[in-house]
Design a protein that fits this description.
Blueprint: E1 2-7, H1 13-24, E2 28-30, H2 31-41, H3 44-55, H4 61-72, E3 81-84, H5 90-98, E4 105-110, H6 113-120, E5 123-125, E6 132-134, H7 161-175, H8 177-183, E7 188-192, H9 197-208
Helix pairs in contact: 1-9, 2-3, 4-5
The structure holds adenosine monophosphate (AMP).
């Protein structure tokens, strides 16, 4: 099954992608996580992406299309995958189509901007493995420590309130038009936020028929 999780920054895509990936035994692929790892490693890709990411702007379609084409060619993607945070522009969606990539379901996670602004301050991420937590909604077992790999959790620089506002504006302008793009292809599945991680996962799995 090939899936996309579409939604504003902070809608809970990373959290839900991890749960669905486990349920369906397919990999979750986050271009944000791939880019953060590149920035941390100081690679050429990281150097190119850093300034855009810190300001809340999008990294160029060319860079993203290159990353995603390489990642989807890896063997663990043979039986399907969940894309988290990609495509984010019509150009990226068209590039996926041009490469013959089709999606069974595009889940649009519907959360208000107000809820997102409230939530972002509590987000914590693992700089090593990319796992995502929230101090209240999804706390790690041990405060400040990643359940998956034991690294110390950090906040994302781009979760500062002013940057979140910029990212929401980018989302509405560049990414939201993807809903119409996928609606016209008959694969858009809007899912309202249910207020808890478990209830939202159940709603997503239901629309996937899983
Ligand atoms: P995310 O973790 O998905 O919120 O992504 C963090 C940042 O990485 C974004 O604000 C962008 O700067 C960049 N990024 C991640 N995915 C994409 C994408 N598909 N297109 C453009 N920029 C992206």
């Amino acid at each position: 099954m090939n899936l996309i999780l579409l939604g504003a920054p902070g809608a809970g895509k990373g959290t839900q992608a991890a749960i669905i990936a486990r349920e369906l035994s397919i990999p979750a692929i986050s271009t944000g996580n791939i880019l953060r790892a590149a920035v941390a490693s100081g690679s050429e890709l990281g150097r190119q992406a850093k300034a855009c990411m810190e300001s809340g702007a999008l990294v160029s379609d060319e860079i993203i299309i290159g990353i995603i084409r390489d990642r989807l060619a890896e063997s663990d993607c043979a039986n399907g995958y969940i894309l988290d945070g990609v495509p984010r522009t019509i150009a990226q969606a068209e590039a996926l189509e041009e490469n013959g990539i089709k999606f069974d379901h595009v889940v649009s996670m519907e959360v208000s901007d107000e809820t997102i602004m409230d939530r972002m301050s509590g987000r914590r991420v693992c700089p090593k493995c990319g796992a995502s937590y929230h101090v209240v909604a999804v706390p790690p077992k041990k405060e400040g420590v990643c359940d998956v790999c034991g690294s110390e959790l950090t906040t994302r620089k781009d979760d500062a309130p002013e940057t979140v506002k910029a990212r929401l504006a980018v989302y509405h302008k560049e990414t939201e038009p993807l809903k119409e793009f996928y609606r016209s292809r008959g694969v858009l599945r809007p899912v309202e936020d249910k207020g808890s991680v478990e209830a939202t996962s159940a709603a997503i799995l239901k629309v996937l028929g899983a």
